[in-house]
Amino acid sequence: MGILPHIIDSIQHFQLTPWKLVGFAGTFMFTSRWFVQLYYTRKYKRVVMPLSFWWLSVCGSALLLAYFVVGKNDSVGILSNFFPVFVSVYNLVVHLRHRRRGEGEAPV
pTM for the full model? Predict the structure, then answer.
């Protein structure tokens, strides 16, 4: 079976499951962080990584990781989301510590 018939067959037999909803929510959150970052960069006319960017990263990565571990059991998806969740948590912690100490308050 070629690639195009496979895609058409997959679309025709699409089933929305609870785990697919988790995966779609994670994808939406993880992707939306770039629109948030773009908004703040345009607003302040410099590159800005707002706190909401890191929260969306953590939540989106966690949902995608849950989907790939439990809902799909897909090793490629697990590996592609395993590292980003730790990087996002680390950056969120650094951001919050920096803000708590009041060191060079960021505009967002």
Answer: 0.76
C-alpha of 77 from chain center: 13
Residue 74, burial from CB neighbour count under 10 angstroms (0-12, 13-18, 19+)? middle
C-beta separation of 68 from 78 below 8 A:
yes
Of 22-26, 63-67, 92-96, the range with the lowest mean pLDDT is 92-96
d(CA 42, CA 34): 12
What is the signed CA dihedral for 98, 99, 101, 107, rounded to 10 degrees?
Answer: 110
61, 81 contact by CB (below 8 A)? yes
The candidate with the shortest Cα–Cα distance to 72, out of 83, 59, 60, 63, is 63
pLDDT tens-digit series, residues 14-34: 888 999 999 999 999 999 999
> Which bin fits 47, alpha (ψ -120 to 50), beta or left (φ > 0)?
beta
d(CA 77, CA 75): 5
